[in-house]
Give the backbone structure.
Amino acid sequence: MPNRDPDRGVSVSTVLGRRLGGELLRLREARGLRQAHAAEALTASVAKVAKMERGLVPMRDPDVRALCHLYGVDDEHVIGGLFQLARLDRERRKARGWWRHDPDVGSLAEYIAMEDVATHVRTWQMALIPGLLQTADYVRAMCVVSETWREPDEIEPIVMVRMKRQARLSGEEPLRFHAVISEAALRQEIGGPAVMRGQLDHLLAAAELPNVHVQVLPFRTGAHPGLSGAFSVISFAESGAVDVGYNESISSTVWVEAKDGTAVYTRTFDRLARLSLAPRDSVNLIASISKGL
């Protein structure tokens, strides 16, 4: 959770920074060392080491290597993974994307910033079409029944934020996006038949993009591991190298940063994908539902 404004040049915590700090904390404690030992190795203060382990300050590669040496870590694969986390965290902190000063982004600011530097996003949606694949009319229909606005004029800026995010699906280095969607989300007529037909047709068009993979989990599957709710796994390199989990409910947002925790999300997503229809069969089901509206 951010605790200060990064534009004022002071400390701010980020998801990637906390992930890196948590890994280094785990390595230090496994060696039975105190923060004072780390501070001595870095010629820094104990307070600075504490900030590093809490993800409050960016870390340089020489500092990461010095700590790895102190903690007895000589596996270059492990060290390389920590370097990658440090680099991504620095890039994330330096980012000056459109979301930084857009008041309509609200609580999604951290997620959008992560989405902007990610290479791959896998999402499971039980009740809604994934945000990156929603039409403007579908977003408007959801806004009408939500508590995210007070005056009608506030709806359109919220819609525009969602539309801006979708730029990540195109361009020179488009985001790889794998969505597993419950059949329930396809049949819930948000906005009425006309809006929903437009949404499903848009989903069919998106499924034709080479970087977008859409699967449908049909009703006939019965019980499945995704019944507890929607979630996303955000990756920043090859699969599994640097992943974080994201889970949003009505009243809270949960970032899963520990490697063991994200592994659970990944395994759950993989199981849902295996239970789902193949992409071609998914497209046929979506087209059939759209035609029936």
The CA atoms of residues 1 and 262 lie 18 Å apart. Residues 1-10 have pLDDT under 50 and may be disordered.
